[in-house]
Design a protein that fits this description.
Layout (H helix, E strand, L loop, with lengths): L2 H14 L5 H35 L14 H18 L40 E4 L4 E7 L23 E7 L1 E10 H6 L4 H25 L4 E3 L6 H10 L7 E5 H8 L10 E2 L8 E3 L2 E6 L1 H4 L6 E5 L1 H4 E14 L5 E14 L5 E5 L8
Parallel strand pairs: 1-11, 5-13, 6-9
Antiparallel strand pairs: 2-3, 4-12, 6-10, 7-8, 8-9, 10-13, 11-12
């Protein structure tokens, strides 16, 4: 039975009636809305059917439609295809993330798009020396700082040989870090938000946590030093004497170490730590930028630790594969989305910094 056709005929009859009442006109408008909604639903079902047929041929991922000229339109097109595929695929079984887990995204009478949790996470991989690895392992040459000098030579005399540059080779071997996020078909069917962005955002946060932990493990192996008391003199000695002047110095401070820095004062009682002047600019201590991370990254809660030195010279990050999210087959009623990243982190220049322990904080978290 062609319900849409019957509603169209009824609407035409109402509109063609010269004695049509207000109720008839209201009814005609209602029929028109119902017809448009039905046509939209049919188009959606046809699109989903095309995707399902492609998936049934052995390709679980939806083929993107013709890409638009702009990168933004292209990304949106892929996300629409991804979400369309998620909302049409059916499997039997159980799942890890169920409807109650994403209840905030499932509408009752209105649509609700949850805002991201307010959380500032520093991506340490952006502060170290990072290169794109093309193999699973290898050696990375680090050029040592030149210490030799040129010689004074008279006119027309033969040039003496320059000292050869010295390299220190860093051995690296990538490791694979991966996990999976199951999404139940019920949550896929009933969710009103962009599931592609939700999964990608969550996976990227976990990737940053993973790389930060690996980088922190390398930082904690650097030569240890201790600073104590209310004086900034110990930190000045590290910056001015212990570290070569050629290094581009910075401070990676745990929350508790930052609390210690924030209480340091000069002889006039003025605080030495300067807050950021503009958005995006770092805090500074004695002209050195300060970046804050959680206590647990460099130690335990309540412990004051910091890395002081040249982070770019100190750490080498071999990036074999950045975060990648894809779906894999599984006997669940829904989708099993897998996140993968591959990298290695090594100490490059062991003289480029120190792992510093500060005085114990009066209270712990």
């Amino acid at each position: 039975m062609d319900i849409s056709g019957e509603k169209t005929n009824e609407m035409r009859q109402l509109l063609s009636n010269e004695d049509a009442t207000d109720e008839d006109l209201t009814r005609a408008k209602s029929l028109r809305s119902e017809i448009e909604a039905a046509e939209k639903e049919v188009r959606s079902i046809e699109d989903d059917l095309k995707l399902y047929r492609k998936a049934a041929k052995g390709n679980p991922a939806p083929d993107p439609h013709k890409r638009s000229q702009s990168n933004e339109d292209e990304e949106n097109e892929e996300k629409r295809n991804f979400n369309a595929y998620l909302h049409q695929e059916q499997r039997d079984g159980t799942a890890g993330i169920t409807s109650p887990d994403v209840a905030a995204t499932i509408p009752e009478s209105i649509l609700y798009n949850p805002e991201n949790e307010v959380k500032s996470v520093t991506d340490l991989s952006q502060l170290v020396t990072q290169f794109q690895a093309t193999t699973a392992s290898g050696k990375y040459p680090v050029l040592k700082r030149a210490t030799e000098r040129m010689n004074s030579v008279e006119e027309l005399q033969k040039n003496p040989e320059l000292a050869k540059p010295e390299f220190e080779e860093v051995d690296w071997k990538v490791s694979t870090y991966r996990g999976a996020i199951p999404l139940s078909q019920e949550s896929i069917d009933d969710s009103a938000i962009d599931l592609t962005s939700l999964v990608a955002m969550n996976a990227n946060e976990q990737k940053i946590n993973t790389t930060n932990f690996a980088i922190a493990a390398v930082l904690k192996a650097f030569t240890a030093k201790t600073v104590a008391g209310e004086s900034v003199d110990d930190i000045k000695h590290i910056l001015n004497v212990d570290l070569d002047p050629a290094y581009n110095k910075m401070i990676i401070a745990s929350q508790s170490f930052y609390q210690y820095l924030d209480t340091l004062k000069d002889k006039n009682g003025q605080y030495l730590l300067h807050e950021a002047i503009t958005d995006g600019s770092p805090r500074t201590l004695l002209g050195v930028p300060v970046t804050v991370v959680e206590d647990e990254l460099l130690g335990a809660a309540g412990e004051a630790h910091a890395f002081i030195g040249d982070l770019a010279r100190a750490v080498l990050y071999a990036n074999r594969k950045d975060i990648q999210v894809r779906w894999v087959d599984n006997d669940i009623y829904g989708q099993y989305l897998q996140a993968v990243t591959r990298f290695d982190v090594k100490a490059a220049d062991k003289r480029a910094g120190y792992f510093v322990t500060g005085p114990a904080t009066p209270t712990s978290k």
